Amino acid sequence: MDTKISSGHTLRELRRKRNMTGEQLAQKVGISQSKISKIETGFSPHLEAKTLEKLLDILDAPQTIRQRLSAELYGGATPQIGGYKTIRAATEVVRSIRQASRVEVFGVATIPYLLHTPEFHEALLSHFSMDKDERQARSTKVLMNLQDLLWDKKRHFHFIMPETALYTTPGSIGIQVAQLDRLHRMVGVSNIRIGVIPFDVGLVPIECSNFVVYNKTSLIVATTGYDIISSDPAELALYLKLFNALDRRADYGTAARALIEKAIDHPKF
After folding, report:
1. What is the pLDDT of residues 146-169, one digit of tens each?
2. Fewer beta carbons under 10 A from the terminal one: N or C of the chain?
3. Are the C-beta atoms of residues 222 and 89 closer than 8 Å to each other?
4. The whole model's pTM is what?
5. Burial zone of 204 (CB within 10 Å; 0-12 exposed, 13-18 middle, 19+ buried)
């Protein structure tokens, strides 16, 4: 389905849930009823960010819907929607990492990006629809340069992942074991804190994706295709609370190493 049509249907459903007619909504927004109709049916040629934000405010849209509509309608552009903007991941993430002295990362499905070996990173990228050779090589080069920051003792990195991430295997067994071995060796580095949440502990019961908090002042949340960046204090507080809850469930040091060793020794590897 076309993204404009999909987004229009979402807005229409929000309006109906508020028991509001198209005419009533148009009056509140300050646009014509025909414009509302075109937006809801996906035939509006252009929807300004400020108009969308006003619509979402009037319809009291949940934050998750605000994020999705922003990503669907504006893609790699940077309109501000309720304190958020959508971005293509690489440029903003790299800039944020370079500028930060404190980085807190939660990887829900795989080992976090900054800890990848080159081979694991390239194997993971191969699962996405991208120009493989040139773009993968460029992405891997950027990653290797960023990893130099891990050894800067003035910076603090805190990674958390569920135990399931240790078993996400994008490449060959050899690539996986080498990745797990690198992770095992990095546990205990003075400025790097690596936590693994055991299977039997479970995650925090809240909708979440991969996310990174930089200097406790900026937040990037991963979505499919795009990332969403925010400096909204309320959202930062929510994700910091979530990170702290995950932190309390994670194993560190010797216990984390034991979970990694268990994965390395798993029969499938």
Report:
1. 899 999 999 999 999 999 999 999
2. N
3. yes
4. 0.68
5. middle
